[in-house]
Design goal:
The chain is mainly β. The protein has a single domain, classed as Immunoglobulin-like (Sandwich). Helix content is about 5%, strand content about 45%. The strands form four sheets. Strands 1, 3, 4, 7, 8 and 14 form a six-stranded antiparallel β-sheet that branches. The chain has a four-stranded antiparallel β-sheet with strand order 2-6-12-9, with no helix packed on it. Strand 10 and strand 11 form a beta hairpin. The N terminus is likely disordered.
Length: about 170
């Protein structure tokens, strides 16, 4: 089952639903809830006029919680969350409370890798190097094993609002 993601721009503390979810073994509908919390605004709430407005440099924490609503264990659970336009992935911030395989895309979700690489020319030679965070387009969590009935998986990542440095955009 695949669901499209809905993003509410400017409502960083709103509950977001409908990200992409793939579940290979799931006869009943699943629940996946995404929340977005402006970490920077919360830390500086006393000095901000509008803590719900995301400003350049703010860090947004996205939390995804999947609940197995079936009476059977579910296997092959995969969360795919695109990074919203204008946000840049914070390297190393993706995690989950269950064992997962983390992968990232830099090509709009077509290909995934634990460490996306790009080919560049340095000193006249083609070399591969780690993709800059400004190139990340999607985060994918694949739950290892199965999830028991009524059990939950909580995953999260952080993204920063605003422009990246020229080196990060390459």
């Amino acid at each position: 089952m695949k669901l499209s993601r809905l993003l509410l721009v400017g409502m960083m503390s709103a509950v977001l639903t409908l990200p992409q979810v793939a579940v290979a073994q799931a006869p009943a509908p699943q629940t996946l809830v995404i929340t977005a919390h402006n970490v920077t605004a919360a830390a500086a709430a006393s000095g901000r006029k509008n803590a719900t407005l995301a400003l350049p440099g703010d860090v947004i924490r996205y939390t995804l919680v999947f609940t197995n609503l079936t009476a059977e264990p579910v296997k092959n659970i995969e969360f795919v969350d695109p990074l919203p336009n204008g946000l840049v992935y914070v390297i190393g911030s993706a995690k989950a409370d269950q064992p997962v395989r983390l992968e990232y895309s830099i090509d709009g979700g077509k290909n995934y890798s634990a460490q996306p690489m790009i080919e560049v020319v340095e000193n006249g030679k083609r070399v591969e190097k780690a993709a800059a965070r400004g190139l990340y387009t999607h985060v994918r969590w694949t739950v290892l094993g199965s999830l028991a009935p009524r059990a939950k998986v909580k995953a999260e990542f952080r993204a920063q609002v605003g422009a990246v440095t020229p080196d990060e955009a390459k």
